[in-house]
Fold these 2 entries.
Entry 1:
Amino acid sequence: MTSAPAKYAQYLADFRSLVQGPGANAPAWLRDLRDNAWSTFNEIGFPTARRGNERWKYTNVAPIAKTGFGLAPSPATANGSKAVAPTYKLEGPAVYDLVFLDGHYSPELSSPAAGPSGVTAASMASAALDNAFDLESQVGRYAPADDDGFAALNTAFLHDGAYIHVADGHTEKVVVRLSYVTVDSTEPKVTYPRTLIVAGSNTDITVVESYSGPKDSVYFTNAVTEISVGEGARIDHYRLLLEGDRSFHVGTNRVKQERDSSFNSASFTLGTTLARNDLEVLLDGPGAYCSLNGLYLTADNQHIDNLISIDHAKPHCTSRLNYKGILDGKSRAVFGGTVLVRRDAQKSDAEQTDKNLILSTQAEVDSKPSLLIYADDVKCNHGATAGHIDADTLFYLRSRGLDLDAASRMLIHAFASEIINTVKPEALREHLDTIFSAAIPNKSLPVAKAR
Amino acid sequence: MAAAAKGSTPLLSIKGLTASAGDLEILKGIDLDVYAGEVHAIMGPNGSGKSTLANVLAGRPDYTVTGGEVLFDGQDLLKLEPEIRARMGLFLAFQYPLELPGVRAWQFLKAGVDARRVHNGEEEMSAREFDQMLKAKVEQIQIDPELIKRAVNEGFSGGEKKRNEILQMAVLEPKLALLDETDSGLDIDALRIVSDGVNLLRTPENAVVLVTHYQRILNYITPNQVHVLFDGRIVRSGGPELAHELEEKGYDWIKEAVDAGV
């Protein structure tokens, strides 16, 4: 352990108290992983928008670096936290509900189904102690901590999280809901949720991963999710960012797909002062398919950054990327989408779009879709639009008796519903529809000039 | 046809209406009275201003009214926002209905019905009551029930879009329906559905103004009056026989007659 720059003193102190305290019982491999990650973080620190750092060109994380976020004391009590558990019900033959308070698994609030053999949905802290799970070979494999300050910091503080594993050939659909909840407190605190999802060959998993916290507290969620989609397996992944208005969130998501696998994700972002959703998908086997959808709604001074990269590493893979934003106030959205088609990845099929509806003259979007194509037999296209509502469309609604406000609300909702409708579990879809409908600002849409 | 209750106040009264789109004057002085219980057909060649008339009455912002007055149900129509006109019971069936991806037909129709009810000081319709009413209208209009489960007009064929306009009309039960070339591009089956929809709406309390290029739809809907619009003015008015005359002689005849000052 080396000395830390003064600005990371709080993190160093917390790191020491973790590794000497609750984290001391961890197996040797995990202790080494943490130490190495801390060294990396200590070396590279938080990213800056310095010249040439394209990944952070539009997002300034200085407010995170400057705030002295302390490690949440562990474990938080479930005292009065019943209300934080999700209210909607998920259907399925096997539904696992895992709730984490300040990053720690809460047995009181969780209801893991009595699992059939072949399915594990457990606290990572306990799974790490059980050699049978072989976490050593999997944690950090998909999201290595060597070049990213946030992933390194998350890994240095790796203690608890969710471990989901479905064994090869387990055909029954598995549904898991992970709720990471930050508990209210007076001091700015940070949690490090960690999720590892391993889908064996020909399995079918739905995961709802949600993040929430107190509305008016300053806190920071630094999350890492690693996903491995085995041959012929399917994962439907829903990521719900429903954090408090004063929160900060950085999520690092890494997905690796094998041959003929399918990964369908929908990401929803509401709230937060600053949110960064970093998603990388590696299509590492022929015939793999991914569909990545996102919806973000921003207001006030919020800043939402979606950075997505899809790597067509093998031939015959298909990717669909469709993100939509609704921006109000002085908010800012950043969308960076990169599709890389490697030289041997013939017959790649990629589409990406980012559409934004801008409701305020002071809101701003930086949308940078890009395609890097090194193969010659591919089908790729991309586009970005910053939308207004067509004047004829608005007149159509008004001619049926809707005033400007009602027509605007209906059209904004319609814009959002394309993404909401990609959500398959009905209860979740309705839940999201309700909260996004409520968040749609009451204002008239800017109208494109009449023809 | 029920004789119109002449002598009472017209439902729609247009006097000296002029309107333009940009610098182009399109309506050059329209006078027209429509009484409750009547169906009027407005015919004319392309560019005569017949669609403009329907759209100006509905309040489309693309047009500027430059003169004249319009009373609808006793109110100065031209001063009202399009949504207020709709809530008072004026309906425009669009020539090119728009697709509304993500807007459910159910949601769209109920919003319209509720806006009108609230305007009239009534409560919004309950979801259940609305469901029953909509189901009845769908059967009445003989529209494919699958269409109302989808987003409004999204991916609909031209004929389906027109039928959907007629469904909207049936649900909103307007006092005055303006049909802007709803019959254009329809096959015989669709034309029959549209005509049946209009005939269903035909009561002593309501009126219909059919804007059309072709006489064909008048085989299914018998108008009380036919008007020929030419170069922004109504140049001929008459009974249903006028439509047949147009069908036989075409619009050139009108042009020649107007040029000759007949």
Entry 2:
Amino acid sequence: MYLLGVKVLYLFPTTMSEKAGSSAWISAAIAAGLGLLGLWGWVLWIGATGGKGFVASLRETVGRILGDVTALFLAAMLTALTSLDIRMFVGGAVIGIVPEFPIDALLYIAILSAAYGAWLGLEAVGRAATFFLAPTLLSLAVVIYGVSRTFHLSELMPLWGLGFRPTVLQGLANAGLFGAVPAVAIVKSYLRKPEEIPSRAAAGVLAAAAILIAALVVLAGVFPYPMSTRTVEPLGVMARAVTLGRFVQRLEALFTFTWFFGAAVQGSFAFMLLLILLSQLSNTGTYRPFMPGLAFLVFGIAGIPSDTLRAAEVLDAVFTTTTGSVALGIGWVLYAVAIARGIGRDSGRPRQGIAAAPKGSEPVSAQKARRA
Amino acid sequence: MPLPNPWRFIKATFTPPRGRSERTTFSLGGRPIHGRQPAPPSEKTGKDRAQSGRPLSTSLEKNERLLKQVFHIPATSDVVFRNITCSVPRLKVTVAYVEGLAAFEKVFGSVLQPLMLLSPLRKGVERNPVKHLKDALLANGQVEEKATVEELIESIVAGDTVVLLQDRDRALVVETKGWEHRPVSEAVTERIVRGPQQGFVEVLRINTALVRSAVRSPDLIVEDISLGVRAKNRCALLYMDSLANEKAVAELRRRLNGIDTSEILTSGILEQFIESSHSLLPLIMSTERPDRAARYLMRGACAVLVSGDPFALILPVTLFTFLQSPEDDYVRWPYGNMIRAIRYIGFLLALYLPGLYVAVVNYHPEMIPTSLIMAIAASREPIPFPLSLEVILMYGSFELIREAGIRIPSPIGPTIGIVGALLIGEAAVAASIVSPILVIIISVTAVASFTLPNQELAMYTRLVTLIFLIAGATLGLLGIASVTYIMLCHASSLKSLGVPFLSPVTPRRAQSSYGVPVVPPWQAGKRPLELRPKDTTRQPPVARLWDKGEILKPSTRASALETGSPARGSQEGGQRGAGQPKQGTQASGSNRGSSPGEDGRHQDGTGKQPA
């Protein structure tokens, strides 16, 4: 959940403020509401399809062809999201901490770190993320505290910014920010407690929305409109301005150190989603053969944008305003189809865990017995 | 010479061919998991096949000849074969033992004297001479009947005495172990200030006795397991039958029985045979302290003792287990938390300090206050080496001194400290090889690494510090962040006998009392839930009954014993049985020597409760 908030803090406040002004935070709240609505549809569909694998559930709901097309659409969306997110973070790292390094080398590091986490599995990434949550939130709090001297609540006026209609339209357009909520459906068959999906996913979306809204409030208070529309990386700028005392200043490198974890966890999780989709689409029992190709693909896409701003623009065009919004709505469509077709909950529970062994390999003991 | 085929390597990595043995997956949880499951108990290993054994012959001479052949008699001079005649029942007997391994007093007192001298005194003879000797003549606490040659060989090399009988295809093995060994002394590698000072020794039975003396419970199971095919060693698997998770015990037993190797002489080698991952992080803890082993047994863990090694292996464990010292629980809990916090800080300093120093000075000097960075720059001005090389040189020198200090003879041991200090502290700085601040950095790192209570974790820290150093020197804080992420993901994926390595922090188990902080002992109501013990409740919510004004009545104490709750009246220093005075219960504070009656009141009728 905090992944969304951290990612968005890099560049999206700029684009959101461009169209809504000081009410960008209200548009974020509207987007969050739509995100919750979209999540609701996916959760209802999860409840209707039971514990089956995601692709199997899709095929059962809308048929094999449409199901595979839907899965491929989500895979493509997630690939673009992963690649461009990593590009944005690495670009920010170049600006913030290692400006003399070639961007490709940093892409290697980020992608390799994320890929290794995915290689180990969903549980490993989830458990590691628990450790990184506290320092990430602490760093955000420190940044906010550090810029509190330059924050003016009056800059949030007028309340509706550029107007009620632009604010609402911006909120509707940015609903795609929460377009990654299908992830809960993709991993549904691998969770230990699937009955907790609705509450936990909703809590995640709400927490991400809270971070996003807080970031936009801070941005508007620190960089009033129209200055906020010219701030390429508001979080980085704010981080550079943090001064906690005579001997505690210029800590942007330390903040980027902690924010790397958020980017890496997000990257690992996104890799994991893609691997799940690919392994389920191809009906293999293992995901590891897909890892090198996927890593190269992500690296290739991440290297396309010429700079961080361009990467953010592409992501905004590809994900936030288009595919993300579509992904939100797909859940309701699937649920409606599932209800219409009478698909119930009595689907069997598949095996847990993503197998690392290839399908069909028999245990050694069985081989010995066969030879004997 | 054929060139290696890279495609075959890649294919084998990602799609193992059929027939290749794969690692089994093991989990303490109840859900079925994918992957190769542990083999059923009936599957024989090579060790099993070797131990099926040749049966004894009814001919005494043949058996004796066979054993002499195995032990290379007459080339071997310390294996003794003594032919005697037992009076009653009248039969020839051959006694075999290893001089030096078997205690001659036991051989004489338990075997030779009863058979040769005392047998006529015994009235009544069993029809079965083997049974008669076993039940009536051989005066020893442990006499077993064996039927195979391999069992006799194993017993002889273990220090027992074998008694071969005429016209019988059975032999008797009498426990006579008694070789010279180091006495029980202080634990060398785990020193504490307050608490028991005993340490394990090389004799297995003494070690199990030390654990038994700490865990005085009939539930403590001590299973003997044989290790090695050619040189048979013994190990003992210890666990609490009422606490340890059955799946964990079965899995550990399976691993110990499933080792097919020539010999296992030490616990360090055994550890590598039974660990499920070859990660740099240790998944099995070793301890030299019986009290520590006992504490972990009472939490539901298992212990393995190896004959000839003064270290016990404890598993399952977590990362936080390695950072705990027994002293944390022996002192008062605020002090325990303080020293544990110091230890955590020391662990982080030992891991990160050199790498962070290089990263910050090389790549992010803006983070350092101006006055300090000027001082660093001034001190580094005459140094000809880059900072990374300087740190590596210093760190390498310190590691050399540390290794030399372990092996240096005791009389000149303190000299190495002086030499090291002179070499590194004074001469290197004066010669402008290293900067003074780097001496401080490395010294702090070294001292921080010495706070780690466990040797395996200390070794891991020394190795990983280098990795962080290289990462920091290459990519600054970004490199350190990526290595941290990779290592934390790796640690998250590890399991020690089915227990996630980063428990109880993640996955979080609510109400687990054995997490990162030291919990007051009267509040430690739960055993570590990540170990999934059979009984998770250690004590009721109110353990200090006296503090709540409650008195445990005799009937309540009996029911507490039946339900397995700690018998409060039977613990040392806290006895409140009949006739035992209750300290400080009188208003005047004096001890009148009276015990409370059934209604909790004292004889004087004041019924005053302690404040």
